[in-house]
Give the backbone structure.
Amino acid sequence: MSGHDVLVVLPTGAGKSAIYQVPALLLDGPTLVVSPLIALQQDQLEGIADTRAPKAVAVNSAQRGGEHTRAWKAIRQGEAKYAFLSPEQLAKDEVVDALADLGVSLFVVDEAHCVSAWGHDFRPDYLRLGLVIERLGHPRVVALTATAALPVRRDIVARLGLREHSEVIAGFDRPNLHLAVERFTEDPDKRHSVVTRICALSADSATRRGLVYVASRKDAESYAAELARCGVRVAAYHAGMKAVDREHVHEQFLADELDVVVATSAFGMGIDKPDVRFVVHASVPESLDSYYQQIGRAGRDGRPAEITLFYRPEDLSLQTFLTAGKAPEDTLGDVVHALQKHDQPIRPARLKGQVNASAAKRTTAVNLLEQAGAVGTTSDGRLQYLAPDLPARQAVERAIDVAETHQRLTRSRIEMMRGYAETTRCRRQYLLGYFGEQLAHPCGHCDTCEAGTAEEQPGRDDEFPQNSSVRHVEWGHGVVMSSEQDRLTVLFDDVGYKTLSLPAVHEHNLLASDQAPEPAPDAQEPE
């Protein structure tokens, strides 16, 4: 309300929606909420409808013509105070022009980590939001997320162009969640144990409701079928289902007509059910970022909840395969050639007739070329080739280098996931350290603490403080995420996460302080 842009990092269930819903009542003009999923938009609309707040509408691709028209009419006439749009909608010039005429007072970016290439759920269309904000006259901006370590926060601020911004950062620790990992060598043994555990949990009224995350649509169906045979009220949920069927599962779970949902990562963002008593991962996810978001669905009422990862090291090879997409080299070349033909900047829509590729590939290519410095966007959203003397081949190669850097970061996240699953130290300390938060002592409430392997460690080395910038002789600039007596975890710009032996660092002089330590923002617990 003081006019500052704000970056908010609060855990799932902390009430991030109130941060924009309340100021919207006091500001003139509509509040625009950028929300990545139609299902998430629907949840938020229903949440507002259950209160005495003004009307909220969504504008998305799932609407029929009449719904679309009525939504815009409600916004224009001031009947709707909140407008929910996807970033894909904001990629359309006519949509941005229409919003500019309305005088948007508050621009809200939900799931803001999606704007960052460092973020685990990077979405290319989020990169355009900084330009949209400027085209709307830079109204006050609120960026909201549940997971953003320091490098991601920096990226969000830069890419959205936040001005004189404030940050509200709450701790990542959820002490009511009991963390555990069960390790297996054979897949049939793991699957049998998953089913046995969930059947036992569901048979107890105190732990009946929970979520099971799996790696594939096939697994979602097969686990759901097995659990149903042992009497569990269960349903599968994945992106291959019809939208109406997914919505039905969602509604049944919220209404306590189902006790368990077996889902891929498609289920979870925005799920607000306070009494989820367990989250089981039948397969290892691709990153601790995803894992943290998914386990955050449990225990939102503050009561204890069980978090168990059923881990088989071989499953990580599947995650490596699933995240090994290559840069669209042909599309990159076609975009460069198309832009080189024009002396003046062009609308992105004009590429459709000149580049034979899907809209998603075109967007990916443009974003990679932008990050490589070969393509720029004007203040009104048009594209231009920035380096007329740069041969097309070199521009493509630079863009491919950007994509490969992203791939290295993705692979490093998988290795950090392996470290969490295999550590014998306090599992909570490891998880929090990944996000740049130091837990001074073992938690006493995870499987490694209970097994006695997570004994108190000697004091950490303060030569490289947490959140300080460092430079490695080979890997370049990085940020210290966590520091222990004998090791450091560093997030490097070009190679991702690395865990380094401190004795080796000192013996070979591998690291140097890159600048004065940057203190993390004071943690502020939500009221």
